[in-house]
């Protein structure tokens, strides 16, 4: 097997292992409880409460699929907040945030 094929197979197995450890249902529950009012039904920054803010909430799905922002940076923003978003580290763990991200990916892939 070529080095490229080995690397590709290893990456695929690693991704599936990562995905298998995520709880999309828990992510959905957390998202609908904590995030939907600002970020909207699909995580695209168009929630009803977000419309009242001076700065529109981020499109989470676009952020997850961006080449210039890593998942670690997005997790840090959720947990520690930024100028337009409160910190959720007293409510959510890193695993919870990853579950939310998995849910956002799922509902946007339909």
Automatic annotation (TrEMBL):
Residues 22-108 form the Cytochrome c domain. It comes from the Bacteria. PROSITE patterns: CYTC (PS51007). Keywords: Electron transport, Heme, Iron, Metal-binding, Signal, Transport. Residues 1-19 form the signal peptide. The keyword Signal applies. GO terms for molecular function: electron transfer activity; heme binding; iron ion binding. InterPro entries: Cyt_c-like_dom, Cyt_c-like_dom_sf, Cyt_C_IC. This is Cytochrome C. It comes from Vibrio fortis.
């Amino acid at each position: 097997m070529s080095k490229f094929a080995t690397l590709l197979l290893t990456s695929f197995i690693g991704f599936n292992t990562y995905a298998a450890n995520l709880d999309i249902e828990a992510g959905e529950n957390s998202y609908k409880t904590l995030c939907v009012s600002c970020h909207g039904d699909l995580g695209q920054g168009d929630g009803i409460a977000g419309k009242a803010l001076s700065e529109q909430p981020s499109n989470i799905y676009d952020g997850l699929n961006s080449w210039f922002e890593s998942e670690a940076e997005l997790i840090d923003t959720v947990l520690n907040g930024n100028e337009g978003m409160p910190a959720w580290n007293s409510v959510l763990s890193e695993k919870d945030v990853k579950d939310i991200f998995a849910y956002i990916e799922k509902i946007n892939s339909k």
